[in-house]
Amino acid sequence: MANEEPQEKKKVEVDWSRRQFLIGTGALTVVGLGAMFLNEPVAAAVRSVFGQQPESGPITVLQGDYFYIPNYMTWRVGDQISMTIHNTSTTHFHEMQIGRGFNTMPTALQTIRTQFAEDFWKGVPVTITAAQGIDNFVTNEAKISSDVHPTPWLLTQPGNGGFSPTMKPGGQITLSFTVPNKPGIWHYACFVQGYMHWLAGMRGTINILPA
Amino acid sequence: MSTLELRPDISPVPQVVKSKRMPPVIRGILWSAIGFLVINTLISYVLDPRYGHPFITQVSITFGWFAAMVGWVLGVGAWEGAVLPAFGHHGTLYTAPGWKRFFEYSTEHKVIGLQYIGSSAGGFFIAGLAAMLMRLELMNNSMWLFNYPQQYLTTVGIHGTIMMFSVGTVALVGGLGNYLVPLMIGSNTSAFPRMSGISVLLVPFGIVTVALSPLLGYWSTGWRGYEPLASQDPSGILFYYLGVFALTLSSLLVSINLTATVIFKRAPGMTWGRLPMFAWGITTVSLLNIIWLPEIQLTFVMSLVNRLVPLPLFTATGSPLTYMELFWLFGHPEVYIVVVPALALWQEIIPVMTRKPLFARQWGVIGLIFVMMLSGFVWAHHMFTNMRNVEMMPFSFFTEMISIPTGFAYLVALGTLWRGRLKFNTVSLLVLMSMFNFLIGGMTGVFLADPIINLQAHDTFFVVGHFHYTIIGGMVFSWLAAMYYWLPKMSGRMYNERLGKIGAIWIFLAFNLTFSQFFLLGLHGMNRWVSVYPSYLQPMNFETSIFAFLLGLGFLFHLVHIWWAWRAGQKAEGNPWESKSVEWITASPPAEESFPVIPRIVSSTYTYDNDEPAVIIPSDGKRVATTS
Amino acid sequence: MSDVVLFGILWVILTILGEIGVSLWGHNMYYYMASTQAIEGNHAAIFLMIFLTPIFMFVVLMLFFVPFRFRAKDGDRKVKAATFKTNRTFISIWVTVSVCVNVLFFIHPTASAAEMMFQEANPANQQNTLIVDVVARQWQWYFSYPQYGVTNTVNANGFNDLYLPVGRKVEFVLRSYDPNHTYDPNLDVVHDLWIPAFGIKEDVIPGETRFMYVTPNVITSFEKNPMVRVQCAEVCGPGHPYMWAPVHVVSSSNFATWIAQQKKQNG
Fold this sequence. Notes:
The complex is a heterotrimer of chains A (211), B (628) and C (267).
Chain A: E1 11-16, H1 18-37, H2 39-50, E2 57-64, E3 67-69, E4 72-76, E5 80-87, E6 94-95, E7 97-106, E8 111-119, E9 125-138, E10 143-144, E11 154-155, E12 164-178, E13 184-189, H3 192-199, E14 203-209
Parallel strand pairs in A: 2-5, 4-14, 9-10, 9-11
Antiparallel strand pairs in A: 2-3, 5-12, 6-12, 7-8, 7-13, 9-12, 13-14
Chain B: E1 16-21, H1 24-47, H2 58-86, E2 93-95, H3 109-138, H4 149-168, H5 171-184, H6 193-211, H7 229-232, H8 236-264, H9 277-308, H10 320-354, H11 361-374, H12 389-401, H13 403-417, H14 426-449, H15 451-457, H16 461-491, E3 493-494, H17 497-523, H18 538-568, E4 570-571, E5 600-601, E6 615-616
Antiparallel strand pairs in B: 3-4, 5-6
Helix pairs in contact in B: 1-2, 2-6, 2-8, 3-4, 3-5, 3-6, 3-18, 4-6, 4-8, 5-8, 5-9, 6-8, 8-9, 9-10, 9-11, 10-11, 10-13, 10-14, 10-16, 11-13, 14-16, 14-17, 16-17, 16-18, 17-18
Chain C: H1 2-25, H2 36-69, H3 88-121, E1 130-137, E2 140-144, E3 162-165, E4 170-176, E5 191-195, E6 200-204, E7 210-214, E8 220-221, E9 229-232, E10 244-250, H4 252-266
Parallel strand pairs in C: 1-4, 3-10
Antiparallel strand pairs in C: 1-2, 4-7, 5-6, 5-9, 8-10, 9-10
C-alpha cells in the first residue's frame, strides 16, 4: 500500500468570536426550551394581554389526535354562529361535547371522567346545515330544528349521554345556532375510546361573554 | 531505547490572519435555517400544497429537514473542507486556535474523536434528564408531573432514542474508536478523514432533532416505533425517524472509515495477530454496523413513506408483525454494537493494570467474532409474545448459545486478572464494576431467553432492568473507565484518584440499587410505558426514583471531575500506566501529527512478562510528509 | 497454589450460601401465582437459578478476590505478576462447562417447558376448554363467552370484567379491532394481554387471531391481589396505562351464577 497522503489544502488560522458563538447558541437553546416547555403559559399570557375578539358567523374547529384547533374560543350571547367541526385525523373518530362539571366513574386505578355533568346544548335550538362522515350524533336535550334526512347515526332521545356529534376520520358537520344566554366559562372535550381522549388532552375552553 | 516517548517537531508557526469570521456553528445553524425555509416553503406552497395551506406539512418538514441537515453540514465547514476540493478548488481551510477547533469542521481523527465523545456526552445528559423526568413522574402512581400520558411516552421515546443512537452506538465507536484506533495501529490519520469530519456533524444534528420532536406533537411509541401505532402518532414521530436517520448515518460512516483504517493504515509490524483488542472490537462492531445499520435505515424510511403517502404496509391490511421483525433484526445486533467495544475495553485495560500478558488472546478474538456473527440469529427473542410457537425454539437456542462467546470475554478478563499485580485505581475499579454489572445483565438474559419465563417478564420492568444492566452497567461503566484511563493521553493531565474512586463507588451503588429493584418491580406486575400504575407498586417506585436521582447526580459528578481534571488536573507523565501500546509513545496530548516517524511494531503490545518494548521508532525511519 | 485452594474454599462456601438463598427465596420470585403456567415458569426459573448460582459466585468472587489478593502495593515492584498467557486446562473446562450448561438449559427447562406449553395449545387437548373471546381496542378490553352466548361482560359500573372458573383450562382468543367502529379495519394497534398472576402474556395484533392458554388454579380476585388483573403490556398510545380490567377466579358454581346474571344483562 503506497502511502499517498491526500493533497491537503493550506491551513490558515483565522479566529472567530467566542462571544458570538456563546450568545448565538445560548439564545437558540433558550428559544428551543421555551418552545418545548412554555408554549401553553405563553399562549395564555398573550391571550390575557391582548384579549380576544368574540367570534361569530362561520367558524371552524379542527379535531386531531388528541387536540382541538383552536383550543380557546370567545363567543358572545346572542351572536349567530355557524360552527364547522372537522375531524382531520386519519385514524381516530372524535366528538365534541360542550359543558361544565364532570360525571365520573370510579375504577381501581383512578376515577375517570366520562362526560360533562351540565350540557351546554340543553334547550338550545340547533340547525344542522351540513354533515358527512358522521359516526353517530347524540342530540340529548338540544332542539334540532332542521330536517336532516333520517340516518342511522342520529340518536335523538335524551339518555344517551351529552349532546355530541362524533365524526369518523375525515368527517365533518356544520351546526348553526344563536349563542344562548349562558355566559361564563364552558369547556369542550372529546370523551371517546374509554374516555381516554379527554385524558390525552383533547379539551378546549369557550369564554361566553354576556350580550 | 531508554525512552519511547516522541516529541513532535515544532511545526512552522501558522500564518495568523487578523480578520474574523462567523463562528462555524452559527454559520451552520444559519445555513440550516435557510435550507429548511427554502425547501419547506417550496414544498408546502408550490409543489405539494395541502388543505388549509399550512406552512408546515409532514412532507414539507421531511424534505425541509434534509435541506437543513445539508445546510448544517456545509455551513460548519464541509463546504470549504469537502465540497470545494471535490470540484478541484484549492481554497484555504481556516482553523481556529485552541478549544475552538472542537467547534468546527476538522479532518483530524483526534479532534473528531473528541467531538464524538463530547456529542455523546451531551446526548447522555439530555437523555439522562429525560430519564430523571420519567422517574420523577413515577414517584407517584397518578399523573402529577406531566399533563398527559403521551408527554410521558414522548419522554420515554426521547430517552431511549438518544441513548441508543447517540450514546450507546456512538460513544465507544465514533468517540474512542476515532480517537484511539489510528493511534493504536500507528497511523497519523484515519482512512477517510473528510468523510469522518462530516459524519461527526450529524450527531449533534440528530440529537437536536430527536430532542425537539415534541414541537411537532407528542409521539407515543418509545424508541422502537412499533407499527401501526407509529402511523397513528402525531408528526413528532417524523423527527424520530429523521433524527435516527442522521445518527445511524453517522455511525455507518464511522464504521466504514474505521474498518478501512484498520485494514489499510496499520504501521509496519502491526499484524492481525498483534492488533490490539480494542481495534479488534471496533473492527467487529464496525462490521455489525455495516451489515445492520442500512437495514434499520431502510425500515425507518419505509415507515416514513408508509406514513407520508400513506401506505398500509404495517396496518391490519398489511402486517404489523413485519415491522417488528425488521426492527429487531437490527435491534438485537444493536445491543452487541453497544457492548462489544466495552468487552474489548476490558481486555485492553486489564493487562496494563495487572502487568500481565493478555490471557488466551485468541479466545477473546474468537469471542468477539462469534458474538458478531451469532447476534444476527437471535432477534426474535424480543418477540416470544407474538411469534408462532414453531419459531420459538431456534431463537431460544441461539439466544442461549450467544452467552458462550460472550463468556469468552470473561474468560480472557478473569484469566488475565488471576495472579496479576493489579493497580487498584479508579480505572480498574470501574472495569471490575462493569464486569459485575454485565454479569447480572447477562444472567438475567438467560431467564429471558427461556420462553416460559419470558412470557411473564417480557414488556415489564424486568426487561428494562436487564438491558440497563447490560448497557449502563456494561457499556457506560466501561466508557467511564476508558475516559479515566486515556485522560492523561487526551489532555496530558491526571484525574484525582480519591475523587475518581468516590465517584465510581457512588454510581456503582446507586446504579445497582436502582436497577436491581426494576427486576422486582417487573415481576410484581409493573409493565412498561406507563405513567399511571396500581398503587401497590408505588412505595418501591418511590425509593427506586430516589436512587435513580442519586445515579444521575453521580454521573454529573464524574462529568465535573473529568472536566476539572482536563483543565486543571495535575500534569501527567507521558505514559502513567507504563503501557506498551502504540498510542502511549506519542506526546500527551498528541500533536496534530501523532507520529512524526511511523513506528515499527516488533511484538504483541500485551507482553508484560518482559521489559522489551513492543514498539520502536526506526532510526532510519522516513519522516512522513508534513502538512505545511 | 494456595490461591487456588483459598479461592476454591471460598467459592464452595459462597455457592452453598447462594443455593440456600435460592431455596429460601426462589419460590417468591413470581410474587403471586394463580395458574399452573405461572408455577411452571417459576419452576423453570428456580432450575436456572440453581445452576447459575455457582457460575455467578465464581465470577463475583473473582472480582472481589483479585483486588484483595492480587493487588499491587504502591511502589512495590519486587513481586512480579505471573507470566502465563494461556492455561489449557482452565480454558478447556471453561469452554466445556459453558457449552454443556447452555445445552442443558436449552433442553431443560427451555424445550421441556415449551413442549408443555405447545401441548396446551394442541387441538386434541381441548375437551373441556373454556373459550373467552378477547377483543382489544384502544383502550379497553372486551370479554365474551361464545360457549354461553354472553358478549361483553361488564360489572355494575359498566366496567369490563373477566370471570374465570378455577381449575378449568381457558383459551383466550385474541383479536385487536374496534367492535363499535368496524368501518375501518385499520384503526387499531398492537396490544398485549397480560395477567401478572397467571405468569403469561400474549400480544394482540390487528389482522391476526392469536391464542393464549392458561389454567387458573386458585380462587382469587383483583380485590385480593392486584396482580390478578388484565393489563395491556404493549404500548398502544396515551390510554395504555389505563387499559386494564379486573379478573376474578371463582368456583364453577359461582361462575355459572355469574354467567346467568350476565346473560340477563345481555338481554
